Amino acid sequence: MTTNPQQTPPLLEVRGLTKTFPATVALSEVDFTLQAGDVHVLVGENGAGKSTLIKLITGVHRKDAGTILLEGKEIDPRSPRHAQELGISTVYQEVNLIPTLSVAENIFLGRQPMRWGMINMRAVERQAKQLLKDFHVDIDVTRNLSAYSVAIQQIVAIVRGVSLSVKVLILDEPTSSLDHNEVEMLFSVIRSLQARGMGIILITHFLDQVYAIANRVTVLRNGKKVGEHLISELPRVQLITEMLGKELTHDTNNHNHHATSQYADSDLFLKVRGFARKGTIEPFDLDIHRGEIVGLAGLLGSGRTEMARLIFGIEQHDSGEVYINGQPARIKSPRHAIRYGFGLCPE
Length: 347
Ligand SMILES: Nc1ncnc2c1ncn2[C@@H]1O[C@H](COP(=O)(O)OP(=O)(O)O)[C@@H](O)[C@H]1O
Ligand SMILES: [Mg+2]
Prior knowledge:
single chain, 347 residues, alpha/beta, Rossmann fold, 2 domains, four-stranded antiparallel beta sheet, 28% helix, binds adenosine-5'-diphosphate, binds magnesium ion
């Protein structure tokens, strides 16, 4: 991170960026600063303007007003390719590489090492393998890109960007279709890039991921910037409040809108009291009666999945009690849950 902002300009600085589409002001006078070594996460509800901000920085769209400075010098990216030449690379959820070429060819596409007028394939493969190994990804680079998962394909796209001596890496919702392990793999790559002093802009709507990877967060709402915070100083409730533009009372935060009246107490199958897990979910109560369907509603990242995982024993609760048919029960693992007659269909 920059220690003396007077002397070193930020890696990337955006001032007063504005973009209007025929029917919408997609972005309105937005300021945004990325320091080298930062993972700066952009959050906001659908339509908040996150992708538009990225597309202006990477030359997909042309800005109506505002300035973009890279290392203190004004730039005007005319296309994603131009942005890439300037040192700004983007990885989208759909990787824009060529699935029918090998991993190695994709990494060096358009700039293969030549030998006697021919592409030196062995050199391409050796270098590609080493680049991936730097990120602890050990795969066969001679296989087609399409042979690999979306996560690996994204990492290949990142490695391509890195090998083009990129300074700013932008990831727009890369994790939407990744599973937990793949997200971890991607995050470990992001952390090593951060350690090398690259600046990373990440868009994700999973709040857990924001807290796992970000050191700085900017919140957009209706095309405007509504907040910028160090993640260490931003409570979750405040983040959600800024995203929504509404105060969350304790009441709306965790409330049981329960139609208990139609069920007899003797029909109470599952009774959960004060279940919680530090750093994951605040204490909650839950009642489920025989024959009842209970819905868990909330924003992405609000804790619905975590609640289910806690009840099913995948995650361990560290406080609270559970009663099944009125008897105290012990659910410390899925095996216990199954023994009590629980089933879980994950997302
Ligand atoms: N190419 C476009 N043409 C017209 N409207 C657009 C276009 N791209 C985005 N918008 C509008 O701009 C607003 C911001 O969109 P976007 O930046 O994609 O939001 P986010 O990525 O935060 O979900 C939305 O109202 C969206 O409908
Ligand atoms: Mg978007």
